[in-house]
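Please review this one:
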Amino acid sequence: MSSIYQHIITAKAKGEKLLAVLIDPDKMKLEAVSSFISKINQSIATHIFVGGSEVDEGITEILVDKIKKHTSLPVVLFPGDVIQITDKADGILFLSLISGRNPEYLIGKHVEAVSRLKGTNLEVIPTGYLLIENGKETSVQRVSKTKPIKRSEIQIIKDTAKAGEFLGMKLIYLEAGSGATHAIEPEIILKVKQKLTIPLIVGGGIKSIAELKSAYNAGADLLVIGTAFEEDEAFFNDIKK
C-alpha cells in the first residue's frame, strides 16, 4: 500500500476531499462489522479510523483484524491510549493534544508508545490535535484532564494550529469531540486553513450532508464522521459513490 500521508498530500494538491469513518472499538459489535464495512465500501469514504477514548486492551486488535478482512481501504489507528496500538492496522495518527497542557498527552504517552511501535509496520503520522469546545464535556476532555479551546477564541485556535505545524506536525486535527452537540463552525475551519500549509482534518458533530459540504467548502481536507453513523446508518445513503 502506498503511503497514507502521501495520499493525503496528493489529494490536497489536487483539491480532492477525503472522508474517514471513525469506528470506536468500544461501540462496534464484531458481528456487525461485515455489514457496516460493506456500507463504507459503497460510500465515498477514503479511510477508516479506529479508536476511542476508553477502550479495553486487546479489543482494538481484534476489531482491526476483522475490518481488514472486508475492505481494501487504509485502516488508521486513532488511539486514545497506547494499549490501542496494533500492527494489524496500516497506520497511526501519532496524536499530540496541543490544545491542552497535560504533559502526558503532549509527550508522555508518546514516549510510552515507542516500545509498542518498535518492530511494527505502521506508518506513523505526527498529528497536532486540537480539542474545540462544543457545549458538553467530551470523553477526550475527561480522560486527558484538559480543557478544550473556546470557539470564540479563534486567534488562539489559529496560533495553536500553526504552532503545531512549526513543531513539525504533518497534520492538524480540529476536533469537537465524539457526540458533539454541533460541528466546528466553517469560520473556524476557514481561519485555521488560511494559516496552514499542511493538511487539515476536521471531526466531531457532523450529522448531515449539508454540514459535511460546509466543512469541505470552508477548507477541511479530510473529514471524520463517527457518531452520525453509529446513530443512523442511513446517513450512508447520502454519501454513496
Q: What stands out?
A: Residues 4-229 form a domain with the TIM Barrel fold (CATH 3.20.20.390). The first helix runs from residue 4 to 14.
